[in-house]
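User: Need the bound-state model for iron/sulfur cluster:
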Amino acid sequence: MRERFWDLPLDRLDRAEWEALCDGCGQCCLHKVEDADSGRVWPTNVACKLLDLRTARCSDYANRRRYVPDCVRLTPALAGQLEWLPATCAYRLRADGAPLPGWHPLLSGNPATVRAAGVSVIGRVISETIAGPLEQHIDWGDEEPLEVERVRDEDDD
Ligand code: SF4
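Assistant: Bound-state model below.
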């Protein structure tokens, strides 16, 4: 791989460089829930069944689409378009022309810095194999859960 290849435009990276750009956070492997009314996409803490929760890496990356056909194959064009990619995602940052953060393993030389920076999903998510309904695992951030509002409306009737 070329020296400081991560500073190059995404469409100039070769296959090995492209794969090495991933910080291994695992955030893109979490399920999302779309609000049918607004189209807004909400994150959950539920991981794809193939995600190894101890490493935040796909347990069968080469064959993942055999088991998860809708797993998105990220491309240079998509990296700048997918709104649900986390703001910390290396592909999203580079698609926006931003530099990699200092905790990225390519800069720190240590994969553990992703977890130390609070970016890795390790220890913060559960597998879809035991999670139950996704709607019960939505990360609402600072906003009031929509489900709560709807239940209150029903209670008021
Ligand atoms: S969110 Fe981006 S950097 Fe993190 S695991 Fe997914 S592709 Fe890699």
